[in-house]
Amino acid sequence: MLLWLSPKRDAHGAMRHIRRAVKKGGFWVVDVDITGYFNNFPHEKLMALVEQRISDRRILKLIRKSTVMHKKEEHRKAG
Questions:
Q1: How far is it, in rounded angstroms, from Cα 9 to Cα 26?
Q2: Residues whose CB is less than 8 angstroms from the CB of residue 3 and which lie 6 or more positions away in sequence, other chains included
Q3: How far apart are the first and last CA of the chain?
Q4: Is 17 in a helix, a strand, or coil?
Q5: What SUPFAM superfamilies is this protein classified in (predicted)?
Q6: What's the pLDDT tens digit per position in 3-44?
Q7: How many beta carbons lie within 10 A of that of residue 64, not counting itself?
Q8: 7: DSSP letter
Q9: Roughly what angle, to the nearest 10 degrees, separates helices 43-53 and 57-78?
Q10: E strand or H helix at 69, and its extent?
Q11: Among positive and negative, which fits the CA dihedral 68, 33, 7, 75?
């Protein structure tokens, strides 16, 4: 079962869902916050993996630009 919060799903609904799952015998609840994950992600390793699947250099260039823009935006927000 996968449960996440989004604009259409609130915390109260999530708790109701968890309570029902526990009553049915479920016992795993995992809370993960990945807010800063991609800020510290090794982008070059990711690109090496992506390049194994995608050979179109134009697409790879777009992916690289998007990760560079994301890094610059995060740096701007932090500074």
A1: 20
A2: 9, 14, 17, 18
A3: 39
A4: helix
A5: DNA/RNA polymerases (SSF56672)
A6: 555 666 677 887 888 888 888 887 776 777 666 666 677 788
A7: 14
A8: T
A9: 160
A10: helix 57-78
A11: negative
Element (H, E) at 45: helix 43-53
Kindly report the CA angle at 42 between 75 and 49, in degrees rounded to 5?
135
What are the residues facing 6 on neighbouring strands?
Answer: 9
pLDDT tens-digit series, residues 49-79: 999 999 999 999 998 888 766 666 655 666 5
**Cβ 43 vs Cβ 67: under 8 Å:** yes
Length of the chain: 79
Return phi, psi of residue 71, to 5°: -60, -45
Which residue has 């993996």 as its token pair? 49
